[in-house]
Every structure is written in structure tokens, then in C-alpha cells.
Amino acid sequence: xxxxxxxxxxxxxxxxxxxxxxxxxxxxxxxxxxxxxxxxxxxxxxxxxxxxxxxxxxxxxxxxxxxxxxxxxxxxxxxxxxxxxxxxxxxxxxxxxxxxxxxxxxxxxxxxxxxxxxxxxxx
Length: 123
Description:
By secondary structure, the chain is of the alpha+beta class. It has two helices and four strands. It comes from Anaerohalosphaera lusitana.
């Protein structure tokens, strides 16, 4: 099994509704995204997937949410774009762009320093 991991950053604003019903004031983060993919086989260039190609795919997903208020986008609920939901959104979006032989193992999102959320499907 071969594994590739990349990281990329984006800036976005969110305001999460807390368990007690209070809503945070909108605030931005310099989000960090880490994705890990794997493949049993290498392609004709002896790569699981080209780093540059994977970064382009991730960039295409982050571009529409960069510098936006996440709750104003249809992909996130009004109650808040938590780090967990952002990780799942990126994971689901990136899965659709990968070659069939490449598996997206997990997506991690760092909302603020040392605060990570990971999404990994149960399969």
C-alpha cells in the first residue's frame, strides 16, 4: 500500500451555535487541511497520485469556500460549520475527484492551533 499526504491552507469565517443555543460571533480562521490518500498500485509514472494533481484537486474544492462565511453556503447548516463538518465536506468533495484506484483515507481540518477534526468514513 502506498500513501500520500498533503496539506493546504484557506481562510474562512464561521459562527457555530453552541450546545446551550448561544451563537458565536462570526470569526475567521486560517484553516489547515490535511488529506491522506492511498493506493495498492502505482500509475504509469510510478506514483500513487501526483502531488501536484492532488493539490490542484484540493485547491478546486477550497476555492469556493475560501474567504467566505461558511454558514452562508448551501453546503453547511445555519447552526454552524464546525471543523467536523468542514472536514466531511472536503472529504466528500475530494472523493468524487480521485481516480478509482486511489482511496481517500481521511481528511483533517485544523481550525486553530492544535485543534484538529478528522473525518474518515467507516468502510
